[in-house]
Amino acid sequence: MGELHPDGRGLVHGQGGGEKRGGRGKTPLSGSEPEPTPAARPRRRRRKPLRIVSLLPSATEIVCALGLGDELVGVSHECDWPPEVAGKTVVTRATRVRKGARSRQIHRLVSDAVHGGSSLYALDEDALAEARPDLILTQELCQVCAASYREVNEVARAIDADIRVVSLEPTSLEGIFNSIATVGAMTEAENAALDVVRRLRSRLGAVERKVRKRRDGGIRARRVVGLEWLDPPFATGHWVPEQIQRAGGWDLLGDAGERSRQTTWRAVREVDPEMLIFMPCGFGVRETVDEWTRAHRPPYWAKLEAVRRGQVFAVDGSAYFSRPGPRVIGGIEMLAEIFDPDAFVDTSPVGAWTPIFE
Q1: Distance between terminal CA atoms of the chain?
Q2: pLDDT classification of 94: cutoffs 50, 70, 90
Q3: What are the phi and psi torsion angles at 329 (to 5°)?
Q4: Main-chain phi, psi angles of 50, to 5 degrees
Q5: Model pTM?
Q6: 3-state helix, strand, coil in the chain (%, to 5)
Q7: What's the CATH number for 2-19+49-194?
Q8: Extents of the domains making up the chain
Q9: Up-side HSE of residue 275: CA atoms within 13 Å toward CB?
Q10: What tens digit of pLDDT does each residue of 284-324 get?
Q11: Would you call 19 exposed, middle or buried from its count of C-beta atoms within 10 A (0-12, 13-18, 19+)?
């Protein structure tokens, strides 16, 4: 039913799907071949605009980064960036989680959904049909954080068998770059995708070079615990430990490339990090601070090195860590500023993090 790209960039489904619609690059000419005259040059086929539906905030950000925002005809209810997506047709809705729910309540709902094989979100089939998409971008990475992948495929086939459904499945920074390339290939925006990835790699390289230089000068890696959930605590996974490492830190509990996993405050105490980074999935800075203010602290909280040193931080997890899109590089720049403020000055997005004072 689906075809996996050889480089692992994603799954492509649907009749006629799975084929990259490649752009035509200019073939280099050898020294013995004359430059063709303008009349002899093949005309570049004009690209036909697509009707794109994105069921993922990260995919929406990728589409807009490629300059295809005008072709977005449908988005998920969580797609809130960039600002120009406001007003787009919303084709999903939350079925269980209510705004303002506490971490423990959300965790219970997610656990019930996982065990029941269901999703926290539902697809608005009528809205999707009215959008008349050519391409739907979705995922299978997390079975509860988007509309059911099986449901998306079934509804798409019922609307039009020619609709292509592309599943983006990054688990690392390189995988995120590949996702951008995949969307570029599926939309005939390969050059734009190359430009976006090149700029992101350039920013990443600038951070890494400075981290390396500081390391050579005797600045050691910060011992960090990043938490993707607070009640109960979850250690980081997928690309987040890599973000921490590239920024000059060492995540003591995270597993790069693996799913985030539930941990305990006892485990945090055992590794006793010098820095704690709170980055709950789907939470902004203010939501994270508010949630921590109401959270139950372990009895030995004040004895943790990070707490004693005043090195506990809340970051915008939703924008810069939860979503595998272009802004993950902003997350790395943010962490670099937190880890080494003497070397990284004003490199993080404005208002994207704050210290938590106890």
Answers
A1: 54
A2: confident
A3: -70, -35
A4: -105, 165
A5: 0.83
A6: 40, 15, 45
A7: 3.40.50.1980
A8: 2-19+49-194, 219-355
A9: 21
A10: 999 999 999 988 899 999 999 999 999 999 999 999 999 99
A11: exposed
Q: What is the mean pLDDT of residues 173-202?
A: 98
- Give yes or no on whether 2-19+49-194 and 219-355 have one common fold: yes
Overall size of the chain counted in residues: 358
> What would the CATH number be for the domain defined by 219-355?
3.40.50.1980
Q: Distance between CA atoms of 16 and 4, rounded to whole angstroms?
A: 14
Tell me what pLDDT residue 29 has: 31
Q: Residue 48's pLDDT is what?
A: 82
d(C-alpha 177, C-alpha 182), whole Å: 9
Q: Which two tokens stand for residue 313?
A: 């931080």
**Residue 10 contacts residue 182 (beta carbons within 8 Å):** yes
- Which position has the higher pLDDT, 121 or 229? 229
CB 248 within 8 A of CB 291: no
Strands (DSSP E) found in the chain: 2-4, 10-13, 52-54, 72-75, 92-94, 121-123, 135-138, 164-168, 222-230, 233-235, 237-238, 249-251, 255-256, 261-262, 275-278, 312-315, 353-355
Residues 338, 344, 346, 348, CA torsion sign: negative
User: Is the Cβ–Cβ distance between 296 and 254 less than 8 Å?
Assistant: no
Average pLDDT score over the chain: 85
Per-residue pLDDT band at 50 (split at 50, 70, 90): very high
CA distances from 28 to 25, 31, 195 (A): 9, 10, 20
3-state secondary structure of 137: strand
Residue 268 predicted with pLDDT over 70? yes
Separation of alpha carbons 213 and 208, rounded Å: 8
Q: What whole-number distance in Å separates Cα of residue 235 and Cα of residue 257?
A: 12
Instruction: Convert 155-206 into a string of H (helix), E (strand) and C (coil).
Output: HHHHHCCCCEEEEECCCCHHHHHHHHHHHHHHCCCHHHHHHHHHHHHHHHHH
Q: With contact defined as beta carbons under 8 Å apart, do 121 and 76 qualify?
A: yes
Instruction: Tell me the residue ranges of DSSP E strands in 86-180.
Output: 92-94, 121-123, 135-138, 164-168
Residue from 321, 255, 317, 262 nearest 292 by CA: 317
Q: Lowest mean pLDDT of 73-77, 165-169, 186-190, name the range.
A: 165-169
| Separation in Å, CA 339 to CA 13, 87, 252, 308 | 42, 38, 15, 16
Q: What pLDDT, on the 0 to 100 scale, is given for residue 97?
A: 58
